[in-house]
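Worked example 3 (structure in, sequence out).
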């Protein structure tokens, strides 16, 4: 079967079983790396990149991003896991573990002379059936479970993270509050809400304890107006005092250019024959920017936010007009502010005719813009924005690594709130869904009389990797616990009077079995369904490969570096 031929194009070709086995091994290697980070008692990874930056994390997506995987098949797996992170926000580790296990079992089947096409179609069927089963029998409606349900789902997502211990109560409430603060009703159905979690800004401030993190209603910018005018000490003091620190009924202009004296572009020469005209040219340079500011002010603006700088001359004009100017706002922030307040982000004031104009419709509105001291820094807060609300979370923590990991965990949990609240559906966690599906698919397999039966049975077996890994990571007897779990689910599916046992999952701290719904271990159903789909997709993509053609890397140019090489 194996052929290793040298292609005429200067590449290498591997075909047949070895390439599949090679790919499966590469994926297994990836899954082995992140295996121990799954679950509430999972461990963290420390990654150091080529310039020495350290990241300590438990988040599957971050680990995969930093691993810089080179193997082409393993890359497919990493890409699909990243997709899970983008689309759902949580469950990346699960995708990789299931996909690697599916591949391992498929490889065994192929070695037993089952054609990969049969395995693939079996996996497809099993995945479809599994998703249907989750939707029909294993989902719970959030409204039935009460309002604690969302907080519990967040707690489950946080349980494996740095802030998942004693602080999980505090943070889950904080995250839910932030998500509630930014929600707005859908245009077509006013009873349904949209949760634009991108409107929640996360700021990190080193120092104090994690529980001193706080939520601020409004868009917090860590720019300071007092800092704007530091040029010389005397000037700073006089200007800072004159600058308004709070503006009610703010009309905001969002600019993506600097407000400073106009200088001629490099290479432009102005030749003046009459020395008396020199002063007039200088004056005109000053006037251009003055006119710009006057136009903005005349349109009714009382706050100017810019991504560029504001020089002293301009700030003087602003102070005279009694308006607030903030410089060096990050472009991404300004885009979001523009969206939330209804402003237009302007690259320049020029219009189609070549004149400079500024219209009132370009202004955004907010109830209030003011400077507030939050923890050790001064922030500018924009409250009561016209189109969409915004909230900011200010995280406190002992060091940089901790704060970065906190931010990632908060991001995961915000995604969970969004998914739970928008779809209103949750499933039990702690391996309950996987165990239920494995029992169901095993019996489903026996109803299929073709070769796919074997593949479906393997799919069922592969899902057990999740409860097994959860138990192993918690230092419990995995074989024993998973057997018990399966026994419960089997009886829930075969005996009518035991149907309530379908919510049974693992209790990892006690090493026992418990009702996951009662214990409040819940996950968004979308996260489970998507992770199954992505894992199957990844496994199928890799299984389909039976030929690997690799070009030889181009020979290095030895002209310059050659002197270092040995002859
Ligand atoms: N308290 C708990 N008891 C039992 N199982 C739990 C508990 N909390 C979470 N789990 C389980 O842990 C798993 C999630 O672990 P984890 O968050 O580490 O991985 P992930 O969500 O797949 O990946 P990531 O969060 O890195 O994107 C889920 O299967 C979930 O059911
Ligand atoms: Mg998670």
């Amino acid at each position: 079967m194996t052929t290793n031929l040298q292609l005429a194009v200067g590449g290498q070709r591997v075909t047949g079983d070895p390439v599949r086995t090679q790919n499966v091994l590469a994926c297994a290697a990836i899954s082995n790396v992140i295996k121990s980070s799954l679950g509430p008692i999972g461990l963290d990874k420390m990654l150091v990149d080529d310039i020495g930056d350290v990241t300590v994390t438990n988040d599957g997506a971050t680990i995969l991003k930093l691993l810089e995987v080179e193997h082409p098949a393993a890359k497919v797996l990493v890409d699909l896991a990243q997709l899970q992170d983008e689309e759902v926000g949580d469950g990346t580790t699960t995708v990789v573990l299931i996909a690697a296990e599916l591949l391992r079992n498929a490889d065994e089947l192929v070695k037993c002379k089952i054609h990969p096409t049969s395995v693939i179609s079996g996996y497809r069927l099993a995945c479809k059936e599994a998703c249907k089963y989750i939707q029909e029998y294993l989902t719970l409606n959030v409204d039935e479970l009460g309002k604690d349900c969302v907080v519990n789902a967040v707690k489950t997502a946080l349980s494996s993270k740095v802030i998942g211990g004693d602080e999980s109560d505090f943070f889950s409430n904080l995250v839910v509050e932030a998500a509630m603060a930014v929600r707005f009703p859908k245009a077509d159905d006013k009873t349904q809400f949209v949760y634009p979690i991108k409107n929640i800004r996360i700021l990190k401030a080193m120092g104090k304890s994690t529980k001193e993190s706080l939520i601020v209603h409004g868009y917090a910018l860590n720019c300071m107006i007092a800092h704007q005018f530091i040029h010389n000490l005397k000037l700073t003091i006089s200007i800072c005092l004159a600058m308004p620190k709070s503006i009610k009924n703010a009309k905001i202009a969002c600019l993506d250019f600097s407000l400073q004296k106009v200088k001629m572009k490099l290479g432009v020469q102005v030749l003046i024959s009459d020395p008396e005209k020199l002063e007039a040219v200088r004056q005109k340079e000053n006037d251009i920017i003055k006119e710009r500011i006057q136009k903005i002010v005349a349109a009714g603006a009382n706050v100017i936010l810019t991504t560029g700088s504001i020089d002293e001359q301009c700030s003087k004009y602003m102070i005279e007009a009694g308006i607030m100017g903030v410089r060096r706002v990050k472009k991404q922030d300004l885009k979001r502010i523009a969206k939330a307040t209804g402003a237009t982000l302007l690259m320049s004031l020029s219009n189609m005719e070549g004149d400079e104009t500024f219209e009132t419709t370009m202004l955004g509105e907010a109830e209030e813009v003011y400077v507030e001291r939050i923890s050790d820094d001064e922030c500018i807060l924009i409250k009561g924005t016209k189109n969409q609300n915004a909230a900011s979370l200010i995280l406190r923590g002992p060091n940089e690594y901790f704060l970065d990991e906190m931010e990632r965990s908060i991001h995961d949990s915000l995604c969970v709130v969004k998914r739970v609240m928008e779809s209103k559906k949750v499933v039990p966690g702690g391996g309950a869904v996987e165990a239920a599906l494995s029992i169901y698919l095993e019996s489903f397999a026996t109803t299929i009389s073709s070769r796919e039966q074997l593949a479906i049975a393997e799919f069922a077996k592969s899902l057990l990797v999740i409860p097994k890994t959860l138990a192993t990571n918690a230092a419990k007897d995995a074989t024993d616990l998973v057997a018990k779990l399966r026994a419960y689910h089997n009886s829930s599916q075969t005996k009518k009077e035991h149907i309530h046992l379908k919510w049974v999952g693992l209790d990892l701290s006690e090493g026992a079995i418990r009702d996951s719904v009662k214990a409040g271990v819940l996950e968004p159903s979308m996260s489970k369904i998507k992770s199954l789909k992505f894992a199957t997709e990844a496994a199928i993509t890799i299984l389909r490969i039976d030929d690997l053609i690799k070009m030889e890397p181009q020979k290095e140019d030895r002209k310059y570096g050659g002197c270092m090489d040995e002859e």
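Notes: Residues 90, 157, 160, 412 surround magnesium ion (ligand 2) (CB under 6 Å). The radius of gyration is 30 Å.
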